[in-house]
Design a protein that fits this description.
Layout: H1 15-99, H2 110-118, H3 121-143, H4 165-173
Helix pairs in contact: 1-2, 1-3
Length: 180
């Protein structure tokens, strides 16, 4: 027996008993570790699921941010284009007014101004050249008397402007106007 009074004496085990005790402990330890392993794997799976959700959210937010940046850039470009168009509108309206000073204000509609601003420089220059040619022909036809007719080449004498068509008719026929 042992030196201590309350301590039981060491027990001698047979080989089978020793293997049985070890096998039992291995079984209990294995079960305990398997449970801990399964718990850890469940936790890992949950965390992976949360990570996947977070990564998907991050990707969505990143795509939304990139779209917002593109939209902002497009808006900036649109504002710059509108500012340039507004500047071109004023500039081109002034140029058309210079070329065709005889045109009335109702010619300068907002639609025409927008159309002039939308033209590229070459197209607007062509428009101005055409307008100059048209104004030149219209100016010659409206105010000046042609030197000769196109048919015979005879000189044309302008009729006196009396303001009264009856009087003018009678004078060109050699008679007195009616009512005098």
């Amino acid at each position: 027996m042992g030196d201590e009074p309350n301590k039981p004496a060491p027990r001698t085990l047979t080989e089978d008993e020793a293997y049985a005790i070890v096998a039992d402990r291995v079984k209990r330890e294995t079960a305990e570790l398997t449970a801990k392993n399964e718990s850890a794997e469940r936790e890992i799976a949950e965390l992976r699921g949360k990570l996947d959700v977070a990564e998907a959210g991050l990707a969505t937010e990143k795509a939304a941010r990139e779209k917002a940046e593109r939209d902002l850039e497009e808006h900036k470009n649109q504002v710059e284009a509108e500012k340039a168009a507004l500047a071109r509108t004023s500039e081109r309206e002034a140029k058309v007014r210079e070329i065709a000073a005889a045109l009335k204000d109702d010619f300068y509609t907002d639609e025409r101004k927008r159309r002039w601003a939308a033209m590229d420089d070459a197209a607007f220059q062509t428009y101005c050249d055409d307008l100059k040619a048209t104004v030149g022909v219209a100016g010659a036809a409206s105010g000046a008397v042609p030197r000769e007719t196109a048919m015979k080449g005879d000189p044309v004498t302008p009729a006196p402007d009396t303001g009264n068509a009856d009087r003018l008719f009678a004078l060109t026929r050699g008679g007195a106007p009616s009512g005098e």
